[in-house]
Every structure is written in structure tokens, then in C-alpha cells.
Design a protein that fits this description.
The protein is of the alpha/beta class. Helix content is 30%, strand content 25%. The protein is built from 14 helices and 24 strands. β8 and β9 form a beta hairpin. α1 packs parallel to α2. The longest helix has 14 residues. Bound molecules: uridine-diphosphate-2(N-acetylglucosaminyl) butyric acid (EPU). The site of uridine-diphosphate-2(N-acetylglucosaminyl) butyric acid (EPU) has 25 residues, from α1, α5, α6 and α12. Uridine-diphosphate-2(N-acetylglucosaminyl) butyric acid binds next to α1, α5, α6 and α12.
Length: 438
């Protein structure tokens, strides 16, 4: 396995550049399967999740070619041969569940493994299934698989209200609805930028979708979509991660420049909270400048659906709070158990605890380097950030979690002055016991 070793305390100086969005890319890759022909996706980050999902696409017969020099992916979905997304791949990545809506839409049938839970508890798919049923799918569970069939071979469309806002369920149902025979009316849809980008791309392929950007969509099914070139947007969570890192580890008086992000996709709650810490933010057309204050102020946040504070930035915020003056809470009602980073941060010296769906963090606390374990993508980037401000070496183990979602992050941080390196290690190597001290 690999780990990242960060030697701190360090400062972030100069600039950082945001890659293409992971979560949007996965949706666009699903969308590409709806059109026979070759879709070219540009600005796709070369990440583990993207290569896992490429495998899922290949398993159903798509020809997927990744150009590693340009970050473009060509997906030829002319000759799909299977309607099944197997457990071995779906278990690696929840977004593979988009195959359900996609294959149902294109072929009127699908067999997709249930994704199961994840490191921070159960992640149900009831809304995905209920939405697809409302469009005319018959759904059965068979040995861990969802088997879905459209009555009469093609979905009819229908009306559905999402009881709770869900990014994934909205995307899955949209992917199915665009090729249905009839019209679909969806209510209380998620309006996260990933969903809007998917909608805009489907429209570019010939889909008829009204209401993008609002909580109600009307989708008039069409007979076929046309493969075309689609540009992926920048990763808003990477942008937010860099903005928090700059506010925490930047040098006062030396703003960090973050290139190629789309700050409008972050939502107002995040920018306001960052300003409340005392950080200065300047938005320009093609970059954002973030300047660390002399001393950060503790600022509480509650995660929410867009434009609320993103749950995917909660762990990074917690790390920043260890360096802020005062006590603040971080409440995550979207994923109430998403706090695996807290005990690891406590091992570095943080004063923090969890109760129910909230963490309380007091600071500023000097952190000291230690071995820490990544448990999921956002927790692992938060530990890396803690390593930047901690004194001594922090070893972030199981870095494969980080590689799922942050493209070339150590290279980017190294250029910005962080002392960071990657090493292989043997997770199961036993320390030699010193039974007899001499
Ligand atoms: N939910 C249900 N039933 C469902 C689906 C969701 O109750 O059928 C609940 C969830 O348990 C959660 C809430 O609805 O409490 C919102 O979940 P959502 O469906 O919006 O999440 P998701 O689509 O599974 C995506 C991102 C996550 C991100 C969330 C929230 C992808 C691949 N994943 O997940 O990203 O945290 O939206 O914004 O797009 C990450 O990138 O690290 C990540 C986990």
C-alpha cells in the first residue's frame, strides 16, 4: 500500500489548480451510454474512480479510451452487449448505481448490484428505486442485485416527488427519463451543480428537459440521443478544499491563487462561513484569491443541500477549526456518522469530540505528526491538511482513498511549498517485539 508523508509545519504559497470534477464526470460517463456513437468527454480527472467506472462501462460493452495526456475520454456506446453491472465493480464505487437508470433508459432492462453501505454508515437507494418505479419500471431484488424491467420494453415516464433531496437519485431518474416514451414530472429534485451539468449535457445530446436549476423538472422523453463532445466542469469540492487549506495554512499577507475553479458552484453558505473565519476571498473570472487571516475565528457550520454548506467539505472544515480561536460545532445532518476523521485528528493533538450528528472542536491547538488512517476520500484529505500544519512527520496511511478523488494532489501541494512525499509500506508488517530490554 501507499502512504503520504507530510513534514510540517508548512505554508501554502503561490497557486493551486483545480482539476475536472470527479462526481460530474461519473454522471457524464453514464450519460454517454445513452447515445449510440462516440462521446468525447474533456477535462476528466485521471482518478481511481474514473478508471473503475471506465471498467463498469467496458463490462457492458462500451469502448472506452482514456487519453492520459489531455484528460479526454472517448466512450463509444454503439455496441453494448450486456445490461449488468456486477458486484465486484459496484462495491468499489457507489456511483456505478447510475447504471440502473442508464441501462433501463436505453434498453428497458438492467441488472445492477446493490451498492451497500460505506465507511460512514448506510447509504440507502430507496429513492432511486421508487423514482424508477414511477417511470414504469418493475423492480425485484435478486441475491444482492436490483433487477429492473420496463413494462413493454420501454419506460413510460411518470410523476415522482423525491421525499428527500438526493443527488444520486435525481441523476439516476433523469438518466432513465430522457429516453422514456412519455413525459416525466419530477419534484423536489436536487439542484447540486453536478445534476445541472448532467442535465445540460443531456440537453446537448438532444434530451428535452425543462426547469434545470429549479426543484421541478419536466422531461419529455425522446426516441434517441446523439453522441457529441461534452466538457466536464471543474471540481467544486477540490476548489473548496484548496480554499480551506489556503485560509488555514497560507501566510497572512500572501494570498494563495486558486486557478480554474467555479466558485459559483460552491454555494453561498460556504463562502460566507469562510469569510466569517476572518479569511479574505477575492473572486476573479478565472481564479480565486484566498488570504489567511492573522488568526482564524472558530465558525460553526451545518451541512445542507445546495446552496448549503457541502457535506464533502465538512472534514476539511474540522481540521481548519483546530487552528481557529474558540469553540465551534460542525453538524452534518446529511451524513450524521461521517466523523471518522475526528479520532484520527485527536491522535494528532486536536481537541475535538463527536456527539450525535455533531462534532465540537476547540482551538487553536498545536498538532504533532503521527501515523493516521484514511477511512474515506474526504477524511483522508483532511488528514493530509492536518499534516501540513502539524509539527513533525504525519504519515497518512491507506492513501488509496485519497487517490479516488484528488488528482495529483501531492504534486500540486509540493509546487505550493508543502513538504510531502509518497512511499510504499506493508500494512501487515509486524513491529519487532523487544521482549528483553538490554
Ligand atoms: N438518501 C436516501 N435514499 C436514497 C438516496 C439518498 O435516504 O435513495 C439520503 C442519503 O442517505 C443522504 C441524503 O439522502 O442522507 C443525500 O444523499 P445523496 O443521494 O444526495 O448522495 P449521493 O448521491 O449518494 C453524492 C456524492 C457524494 C456527496 C453527496 C451529497 C457522488 C458520486 N457522490 O452522493 O460525494 O457527499 O452526493 O452531496 O456524486 C464524495 O465525493 O466524497 C461523496 C461522498
Amino acid at each position: 500500500m501507499e502512504k503520504l508523508i507530510i513534514k510540517g509545519p508548512g505554508r501554502i504559497r503561490g497557486s493551486l489548480t483545480v482539476s475536472g470534477s470527479k462526481n460530474t464526470a461519473l454522471m457524464l460517463m453514464s450519460g454517454a451510454l445513452l447515445a449510440p456513437g462516440r462521446t468525447r468527454l474533456t477535462n476528466v480527472p485521471l482518478l481511481r474512480d474514473v478508471s473503475t467506472f471506465s471498467q463498469v462501462l467496458r463490462v457492458v460493452g462500451a469502448d472506452v479510451r482514456v487519453d492520459e495526456t489531455t484528460g479526454a475520454i472517448d466512450i463509444d456506446a454503439s455496441n453494448l452487449t450486456s445490461c449488468e453491472a456486477p458486484y465486484e465493480l459496484v462495491k468499489k464505487m457507489r456511483a456505478s448505481f447510475y447504471m440502473l437508470g442508464t441501462l433501463l433508459g436505453r434498453f428497458g432492462q438492467a441488472r445492477v448490484s446493490l451498492p451497500g453501505g460505506c465507511a460512514w454508515g448506510p447509504r440507502p437507494v430507496d429513492l432511486h428505486l421508487a423514482g424508477l418505479k414511477a417511470l414504469g419500471a418493475e423492480i425485484e431484488l435478486d441475491h444482492g442485485y436490483v433487477v429492473a424491467k420496463a413494462k413493454g420494453g420501454r419506460l413510460t415516464g411518470g410523476a415522482f416527488r423525491f421525499e428527500k433531496s438526493s443527488v444520486g437519485a435525481t441523476a439516476n431518474v433523469m438518466l432513465a427519463a430522457v429516453l422514456a416514451r412519455g413525459t416525466t414530472c419530477l419534484d423536489n429534485v436536487a439542484i447540486e451543480p453536478d445534476v445541472i451539468e448532467l442535465g445540460l449535457s443531456l440537453v446537448k445530446m438532444g434530451a428535452r428537459i425543462e426547469g434545470l436549476g429549479t426543484h421541478s423538472l419536466e422531461i419529455e422523453g425522446v426516441d434517441a440521443l446523439t453522441a457529441t463532445e461534452l466538457e466536464n466542469c471543474p471540481d467544486r469540492i477540490e476548489l473548496g478544499t484548496f480554499m480551506i487549506a489556503a485560509a488555514m495554512a497560507g501566510a497572512p499577507g500572501e494570498p494563495v491563487r486558486i486557478n480554474r475553479g467555479r466558485p459559483d458552484q460552491l454555494g453561498d453558505a460556504f463562502a460566507q462561513a469562510l469569510l466569517d473565519t476572518g479569511a479574505t476571498i477575492e473572486f476573479a473570472d478565472d481564479h480565486v484569491l484566498v488570504e489567511a487571516p492573522d488568526q482564524l475565528r472558530a465558525t460553526s457550520i451545518v451541512t445542507g443541500v445546495y446552496p448549503g454548506f457541502p457535506t464533502d467539505l465538512q472534514a476539511q472544515w474540522v481540521v481548519m477549526l483546530t487552528q481557529a480561536t474558540g469553540t465551534a460545532t460542525v453538524r452534518d445532518p446529511i451524513y450524521p456518522d461521517r466523523f471518522a476523521h475526528i479520532p484520527e485528528l485527536v491522535r494528532l493533538g486536536a481537541t475535538a469530540g463527536v456527539s450525535g450528528d455533531s462534532a465540537t472542536i476547540s482551538g487553536p491547538t498545536p498538532l504533532t505528526g503521527a501515523n493516521v488512517m484514511s477511512t474515506d476520500l474526504r477524511a483522508s484529505v483532511s488528514l493530509l491538511m492536518a499534516g501540513i500544519v502539524a509539527t513533525g512527520e504525519t504519515h497518512v496511511l491507506r492513501v488509496y482513498h485519497l487517490d479516488r478523488g484528488y488528482e495529483r494532489i501531492e504534486e500540486k501541494l509540493k509546487k505550493a511549498g508543502v513538504n510531502i512525499r509518497r512511499e510504499r509500506y506493508d500494512e501487515f508488517a509486524q513491529p519487532v517485539p523487544h521482549l528483553f530490554e538490554r
